[in-house]
Amino acid sequence: MDWNELDDHAASSGGSGGGFYTFKVGDNNLRLVSLGEHMTRAGFNPGDAPRQRFLFWCIDRDDAVIKEEGGKDKVKLQIVDCGTMIIKALRAYQKEGDYAFPADESPPYDINIKATGEKKQRRYVVMPARKNTPLNTEEVLAIKDLTPLSEIKDRLKAKEEDAKLPPAQASGDIPADTIVNDPVRGKVPVAPPSDEIDIKDIKF
């Protein structure tokens, strides 16, 4: 989904934060390495408006590799789950000025997302790096093997639907013995349905 389409979805209200990468108060130095995948998630409480969420693959510049004993370090790729506050800021940079880039590409520079406050008081300020920086060879190769975010979204939505049903009626679309190929951790089982939905439970 390119930035023009994300811009349409971001017109709805929503928060920010969460996902495999967890935003921390202060600086969050990231490189987005994919286009975003939009999804609508239920509100936190009954009666709340749906939340507009946007998934991206990213590299945490402060924690960019997986250390392996006796082997070469691997690029650490994570999913970051953003809300409209961050998307609108990124979209503004994408469209104009010195930081503009094509709508069908990810930003060609690192970004700093400064977070303040907690929970519903959380606010984000997005600042791009002063210059474009190419990804290195290891990062480019690792990105080629990433699971499409559309598949991650489908698994998350299936888990949310299962959680709405009594256990006997759960669809079983994500059985506990299903094995998926994780480009970072190898083969891992998909978590079975549970009463609580957490994007961290969705394997990739």
The helix content, as a percent range, equals: 10-25%
Ranges where pLDDT stays below 50 over 5 or more residues in a row are 9-19, 168-180, 182-197
Q: β content, as a range?
A: 25-35%
Can you give the mean pLDDT? 76
Whole-number tally of structural domains: 2
What labels describe this entry?
alpha+beta, two-stranded antiparallel ribbon, 204 residues, globular
Record the SSE blueprint:
Blueprint: H1 3-9, E1 26-32, E2 37-41, E3 51-60, E4 65-66, E5 74-75, E6 78-82, H2 84-95, E7 111-116, E8 123-128, H3 137-144, H4 149-163, E9 179-182, E10 186-189
Helix pairs in contact: 1-2
Walk me through what this model shows:
- This protein is globular.
- With 204 residues, the protein is of the alpha+beta class.
- The two termini are 19 Å apart.
- The strands form three sheets. Strands 1, 2, 3, 6, 7 and 8 form a six-stranded antiparallel sheet that branches. Strands 4-5 form a two-stranded antiparallel ribbon. The protein has a two-stranded antiparallel sheet with strand order 9-10.
- The protein has helices spanning 3-9, 84-95, 137-144, 149-163, and strands at residues 26-32, 37-41, 51-60, 65-66, 74-75, 78-82, 111-116, 123-128, 179-182, 186-189.
- Helix 1 (3-9) packs across helix 2.
- It has two domains: 3-146, no CATH class; 147-204, no CATH class.
- Residues 9-19, 168-180 and 182-197 have low confidence and may be disordered.
- The longest helix is centred in the last third of the chain and has 15 residues, at 149-163.
